[in-house]
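Board notes (copied after class):
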Amino acid sequence: MSPKDTAGTRRGDRFGGITPGRIGMAVVAVLLLVFIFENTRDVKIRLLIPEVTMPLYLALLGTALLGAGCGWYAGRRGARGRK
């Protein structure tokens, strides 16, 4: 068999197979979404000077998205430095 025939069958390939890490991340993502959408009360949030009132789930969702974006960016920068 040539390497081209087996390229997509390796464990941990970019999109191939379900790994324990992917299962763990899926569980964490589901728990995060349940936590976010269970907290629907309006809260006052202060960011530096302005104070706004908004549903807590929007604040949690925004924070989770910012954290995911920062993690993705840091992961890409780390992968580039190892080349």
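Comment from the instructor: The helical segments are 3-6, 20-38, 56-81. Residues 53 and 70 are 25 Å apart (CA to CA).
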